[in-house]
Amino acid sequence: MANSDYAGSDAETVTGDHDITESAFKAYWKENLTLMGVLLAIWFSVSFGAGILFRDFLDQWSIGGAPLGFWFAQQGAIYVFVILIFVYSAMMHRIERKYDVDDDEG
Predict the structure, then answer these.
(1) Residues forming a β-bridge with 67
(2) What does pTM read for this prediction?
């Protein structure tokens, strides 16, 4: 979607690197903050929930000889965090293209 798709009654352009309307700017940041909130909630659930709160329950299973709760506390949260970085990058690229603020050439 281009900028003109978001131009409503407040078609005032925000100054900066990209010409974007105020309403598109607000919609862009709303999607950005929503995405960050969801990804941080997932990371918190995995690191704090699986590694600390549900550790005793998860310890009835094991990965590589280590109890699952211990594994999440030591390894799993880090793996999930790295995966979430790639998910964030891909989703932000999609959001930036949607609002026509993508800096990538091509």
Answers:
(1) 62
(2) 0.74
Give the mean model confidence (pLDDT) for residues 15-39: 88
Torsion of CA 34, 37, 42, 44, to 10 degrees: 180
DSSP labels, the chain: --GGGT--S--PEEPSSS-EEHHHHHHHHHHHHHHHHHHHHHHHIIIIIIIIITHHHHTTSEETTEEHHHHIIIIIHHHHHHHHHHHHHHHHHHHHHHTT------
Cβ contacts of 61 within 8 Å, gap of 6 or more: 67, 68
- Report the C-alpha gap between 13 and 33 in whole angstroms: 21
> ∠70-76-78 over CA atoms, to 5°?
120
Q: Where are the domains of the chain?
A: 33-100
